[in-house]
Amino acid sequence: MSQPSVARPSKSYVEAARLKHPQTMSREEATRPAKGNTPLGLPVCLVPCRPTPCTAGSWCRTDLSGAITSVWPQGFGWYSPKPSQKSVNEIAAKLRPYEWTAAQPPPGAAFVQGSGVQMMDAMYEATKAGSGQVPSKLRGVFWMQGNGVGEELVTLQFGEWDASQRTLLTPLAPFSWGWPNGKPTDAPFGGRMYTPGLIEGGARTLLNEAGVTILTTPGTAAYQFSAEPAQGTLSSARLDVFVGNSRVSILNGWGYGFYGMTGTLRAAWLCCAPCCWPLSQAFTLDELEDGNPALSGEAWHRGIRWGCCGVTCVPFGGYTLLKVIDGEGRPTRHHADFVEYIGDVPVWTWAGNATSGYE
């Protein structure tokens, strides 16, 4: 029996790449208890894990410092970064409408599609507002190569960068995420996760209601980079994800209740989920190097670990972020690889929400 087809590695990169391991942490980072360790410093995998209200309160919070969360007491979403996105109507007008067929889209939201080349250019143009504050190695458009879920392109450059905390908050905003309208020939794992229902269902989860309130906004990824000897290196980060409320992580079952349910159902979930739904995830970002400083920031490993109650010991689902458009809007050496991979399959994206006041 034949083996499942997997995404073809980027020719220009994989042979020479090596993982750059996290460097020295600051004294504060090294001495405070971290997720995954007990207060005694023992790996939490080696002690019994029992989801009590006390531990649930710990592993359900984000790792963001008070210096970050205090800036956004009313919540953070795609409407928060300054300067804000300019109107994306002109960019969207150059692309074709995308109609959902297998799931219910967020109310009032618009979606467009185009070729791989068109979408890479459109995503860069639509998200470059304010990117000057974001470190250059994080700007541009990235291909999620090897992501088993039906997701292809992402940008990190539209967001808020806090240099003192080495933290980037990047919300899911119009033209910041690209999904395939079909299955590429070399889709990961034979394209098992590339059905319209799974792609649109996953997109709806990420987009939430595509609104502008703390409970309806799409999610935000918080990249917290380690302190390193070479200031500005920014080669290793841990990620957290939140929806509106920057104090509540959604990388566990309890956090999902803050935006996935309403009313009585939400109240019951928030009360019971720490005991009955202890699923946890941990996301990481580590730069991959090939020895050429000029190519800094072109490739990253997006690690994913699974577990429960804040214990994340099982790696599964990681992939490689390859920069296809650089911070100046120019194609990189991985651009042609993505064009060959995506072929004739269109890529679609959220183009804004006419009912929200942001277009």
Plain-language structure description:
With 359 residues, this protein is an alpha+beta fold. It has one domain. The protein has helices at 27-31, 53-59, 66-69, 89-92, 116-127, 196-207, 253-260, 263-276, 335-342; strands at residues 18-19, 96-97, 109-114, 141-145, 153-155, 160-162, 167-171, 177-180, 220-225, 236-242, 279-289, 299-308, 311-315, 319-325, 347-353. Helix 7 packs antiparallel against helix 8. The chain is globular and about 45 Å long. Mean pLDDT is 79; it is low at 1-57 and 355-359.
Described by the principal axes of the CA atoms, the overall outline is globular
What can be said about the biggest beta sheet? 15 strands, antiparallel
Number of helical regions: 9
Number of strands: 15
Multimerization status: single chain
The fraction of residues in strands falls at 15-25%
Distance between the termini: 50 Å
Helix content: 10-25%
- Class of secondary structure makeup: alpha+beta
Number of domains: 1
Average pLDDT confidence is 79
Question: For the CA atoms, what is the radius of gyration?
Answer: 20 Å
Order of helices and strands: EHHHHEEHEEEEEHEEHHEEEEHE
Give the low-confidence spans. 1-57, 355-359
